[in-house]
């Protein structure tokens, strides 16, 4: 197996199994532990996985946001339900903003029945989903492209967003701690803040596992959103904290 083939196979194994032991990878691909170490170092530098105490994992950490393609496979029924709830807010002629998350991406599949809608996004995945839909006017921000996140970021992206206005901004987050939202990447935080600043109303879509994960950078309080949709698997303790804080939310 060539080097590039082995590394692609390692990424596929980690994404399929979430976590794989280093020794198991060495045995599976019939190479030395040192070779696997070098492979994992390279793949980690590309943001495709992370090394974690003798193993490789696709799971997020405080500093590592899981690869886009891995996240896109997770919690699909819940993300579809959240997207349907979000769709009910959008009216013909609206201008909406979608962030780079795999959760808000699902809204793209709900737009076919709207007579006309303008969609602004930094997400390449959004572009690929909507580029052939004749009822959608698609506006891409441009900026510095990051393949592992399938999105555009940086000064050009943020300046573009600040020059535009929208009726709705739809966002998600990799981590919710209490009533605060966090992300691993500062560039993504700035993009999300720019989205929120350019929209009349902001909508938060969260799958319930986000209340048990952690990330480094605070980017918003849940109170900043006009509508909040969370899937029905939300644990009672997290739901109670939101209610005690006086935050209205919809379980879908």
Automatic annotation (TrEMBL):
InterPro entries reported for this sequence: Carb_Metab_HTH_regulators (IPR050313), DeoR-like_C (IPR014036), DeoR_HTH (IPR001034), NagB/RpiA_transferase-like (IPR037171), Tscrpt_reg_HTH_DeoR_CS (IPR018356), WH-like_DNA-bd_sf (IPR036388), WH_DNA-bd_sf (IPR036390)
Record-annotated HTH deoR-type domain positions: 3-58
One Pfam short name: DeoRC
UniProt feature coiled coil, ranges: none
Entry GO MF terms: DNA binding; DNA-binding transcription factor activity
Swiss-Prot/TrEMBL keywords: DNA-binding, Transcription, Transcription regulation
Name recorded for this polypeptide: DeoR/GlpR transcriptional regulator
